[in-house]
Amino acid sequence: MTRVNLDRRQIAAGLAAALAAPFAPCLGLSPALAQTSRGTWSELTRLAEEAQRLGLSVPRMGLAPSSGGDDFSEIQPALVDFMDGVSASAPDAPGATSADVDSLIDRASELLRTSRNAERVPRDIPEGPQATAVTAPKFEDIAASYRQLFDTCVIRPEKRSEVMWYVSKIADPTRRKAYEQVFEETCVPWYVVAIIHGMECSFDMNSHLHNGDSIKAKTKQVPAGRPNPWLPPSDWVSSAVDALKYDKLHEQADWSLPRILYRWEGYNGWRSRLLYKINTPYLWSFSNHYTKGKFVADNVWDSNAVSKQCGAAVMLKGLVEGGHIATPA
């Protein structure tokens, strides 16, 4: 297969084209979500204008968001590409101080965090009066089904461009260098680290791998108080290493395809599979193996809600199809 080489500045210039145009009506969204989305685009417009005044490169603008219904699908790449553009162009912008650049990235990172937390709920931890406890299936009982699902996984045609955006972030040289540093300290394959980063942090290097909280302090969400000790702003790699060690991934020797998918599904929770009898969107969203159904709040299941985040197994499929890795054994 042909390997796709993507330059960070080309990526940043080619995506997120919605920032300067008037925000399109949020058809199909609740008033509260529509207001949140409008506020995000307005703030991102202001950030883009500020960056341009400082001589920093930001994605080209001109198109309004294509549909209010897929707000996270549009907001996430816009914010990530904005941060990438600012970071990549900072050395060539003498009018922008390091404090200017940090401020822009920090504000964009917080917008991204807010949008991501509105799209996904924390880990599926069965606690509280509405929760139903489940027992994880044995790995040996479902390993073969993981291979069958991956072999027959097809990226939905209407989602292929979005999946390729995820792949481009995983393959980004700067991010890959960080992922490989984590691998050197934990023996967790770099692409496994990358995909967890995409799921939990939207590829934001200013967020803890544990749960997407800001790297400027210890984590507040589950698991709270990590890393310990932590002297912010420490580097992303050391936080990521702590996250993987906290979940004991550094102790795992088996990184076969079924084991990878089993660990990812266990990380997010088993109730989609065991209680609602669907392939979890955490793995299979954007593919033929998932249509609808997700938790929309702690212990609140909506059978008609559709995940707007690419599944981990689908990112892995995109990496294989793009020639970036071979299919894990």
Helix-strand layout with pairing:
Elements: H1 8-14, H2 31-53, H3 71-89, H4 98-119, H5 139-151, H6 160-171, H7 173-186, H8 190-201, H9 236-246, H10 257-268, H11 271-274, H12 281-284, E1 294-297, E2 300-302, H13 312-321
Helix pairs in contact: 1-3, 2-3, 2-4, 3-4, 5-10, 6-13, 7-8, 7-9
| Order of neighbouring strands in the sheet with most strands | 1-2
Tell me the helix content: 40-55%
Number of discrete helical segments = 13
Radius of gyration: 19 Å
Kindly state the number of beta strands. 2
- The pLDDT mean sits at 85
Shape, per Cα inertia axes? globular
Number of domains: 2
| Unreliable sequence segments | 1-36, 66-70
**Percent in strands:** under 5%
N-to-C terminal Cα separation, in Å? Answer: 18 Å
Question: What do these coordinates show?
Answer:
The chain has 329 residues and is mainly α. It folds into 2 domains: 8-119, no CATH class; 139-321, no CATH class. The protein contains 13 helices and 2 strands. It has helices spanning 8-14, 31-53, 71-89, 98-119, 139-151, 160-171, 173-186, 190-201, 236-246, 257-268, 271-274, 281-284, 312-321; strands at 294-297, 300-302. A hairpin with a 2-residue loop joins β1 (294-297) and β2. α2 (31-53) runs antiparallel to α4 (98-119) and α7 crosses α9. The chain is globular.
Supply database-style keywords.
single chain; 329 residues; mainly alpha; two-stranded antiparallel ribbon; 13 helices; 50% helix; disordered N terminus
Write a short abstract of this structure.
This protein is globular.
